[in-house]
Amino acid sequence: MTAFSPSDPVPKSNAVHTGSALLTNDVGLHARPSVKLTQLAKRFGAHIEFARATTGPWVDAKSPVKVMRFKAAKGEMLHFRARGSDAAEALAAIVSLVERGFATEHEESSEPPQG
């Protein structure tokens, strides 16, 4: 039996990745943004949660009912944490979605040019 040492690297699947993003869209985290958040979270195998404070309480980002019930307003900071083999990628994608005001790349690229 091998003893675990605090200096041992944490296996990638158990590492917790964290990040934060400010809600900047006008409606905050309501119907459409909630759906976009859960749909994106479900694309990843990682366990993804978010909260208003880094101490929680944490909400499962893959649960449409829990995300809709959260009801965060514009100007609130959302804190995210993810654990699993694709946690880093999941966290980056979700933080990016929130930072873009829940606009997807497709929506951004389909806007007519300004001029």
Topology:
Layout: E1 16-22, H1 31-41, E2 47-51, E3 59-60, H2 64-70, E4 77-83, H3 87-99, H4 105-109
Antiparallel strand pairs: 1-4, 2-3, 2-4
Helix pairs in contact: 1-3
Overall CATH class: Alpha Beta
Name the helicity range: 25-40%
Q: How many structural domains?
A: 1
Number of discrete helical segments: 4
Spatial separation of the terminal alpha carbons:
68 Å
CATH superfamily: HPr-like
Q: State the assembly state of the protein chains.
A: single chain
What name does the CATH topology carry? Histidine-containing Protein, Chain: A
The CATH architecture can be given as: 2-Layer Sandwich
- Taken as a percent bin, the fraction of beta residues is 15-25%
Structural class: alpha+beta
Principal-axis shape equals globular
pLDDT averaged residue by residue: 84
Structure description:
By secondary structure, the chain is of the alpha+beta class. The N and C termini lie far apart (68 Å). Residues 1-11 have low confidence and may be disordered. Helices cover 31% and strands 18% of the residues. The chain is globular, with a radius of gyration of 16 Å. It has a single domain, classed as HPr-like (Histidine-containing Protein, Chain: A), CATH 3.30.1340.10. It has helices at residues 31-41, 64-70, 87-99, 105-109, and strands at residues 16-22, 47-51, 59-60, 77-83.
Compact overview of the structure:
The protein is of the alpha+beta class and 115 residues long.
Characteristic key phrases:
single chain; 115 residues; alpha+beta; four-stranded antiparallel sheet; disordered N terminus
